[in-house]
């Protein structure tokens, strides 16, 4: 007996959506080990070149390449574990290897790759960092089982160090958020009692915090460029608004010129909105990811050090506020221009309505005069018609008299004049009634 399905047919995206929660799993890590992370911003047109670059590395090392259309891939290349992830606007490359170098960060993992391969990755570097994962017992000889200031200085020179307990104290994380002379930032991660997967998650979050922070800050140069432009637009709008208020009794020509100036200003604002909204929207999304990743660290304060959360609140939040303010000012300016344009358009429409009303009054006056003139002409036309018909009657009467009829042509013509006048008047009234009836019918059809 054939198996019968237990479920209705699957939605076309069911499998991919179910797998989404398992996307980008962290690499398990055990101390001691070291890692390098590089985030490269890449345009859509260079995606194929990026994949070809990875495939070329696989060909050199004899590793199976990533599948076509894939967004993540991991492989071991000699002693290096290589993890590649494709995000919306950037790609991340993470390299892991076991063991530590004699000097902190002196032998980066990427030094084990074929020479020049990493530098040839398509795109632009947004963030790069080296990380060192060591057992806390190896370095924690300071007070309270923490690294001493001298030990931190070995890793971060004289820079101000930010650090905290992470994973509710299962580990320690330190960084200075500085790009060092080799072009990389540095993270020191100390394992107290973290599992391998927990250590991998914590290091991935530290890397992602900085990558997402840099992507969020890409909106800051846009906001800085917009700032003087926004001030100029605001001054122009203030001047136009004053002209609108001062020109309440201005002529239609002046109002229409003002309206054209407002339309030009609105076009400039919409151009700025179109050029910046995608960047500002992405910045908000990246900032939210930074906040989420910091929360996931579950920091525990170390006396005398700023936590990562505090550092980001003091340094990143003002930059994000600048971007948000520039974005809001653009939208506010757009609304203000729309309101001023609406006000001025209303005034122009009212002026046009007054002109139209005056034209209608003048047209009605002319129509009335034309009607009176027409009535005068109609009266003269009746007289002319009666005179013409009376002449015909007179000619007929004279002909009858010449034929021997006992009639007086003058008397018959005089008697016919009132009859002819009444007939002509009745015909004219009938024509008027017919025209009025046709007009009423057309009016009802229109409505």
Percentage of residues assigned to helices:
55-70%
Q: What is the distance, rounded to the nearest whole angstrom, between the alpha carbons of the first and last residues?
A: 74 Å
Percent strand equals 5-15%
Low-confidence stretches: none
Helix count? Answer: 9
Give me the secondary-structure category: alpha+beta
How would you describe what is shown here?
The structure is a single chain. This protein has 447 residues and is an alpha+beta fold. It folds into three domains: 23-207, no CATH class; 219-357; 366-436. It contains nine helices and eight strands. It has helices at 14-20, 47-61, 136-139, 149-156, 196-217, 219-246, 252-297, 308-402, 409-446; strands at residues 33-41, 72-77, 80-86, 90-98, 124-135, 162-166, 171-175, 185-191. It has an eight-stranded mixed sheet with strand order 2-3-4-1-5-8-7-6, with helices on both faces. Strand 2 and strand 3 (80-86) form a beta hairpin.
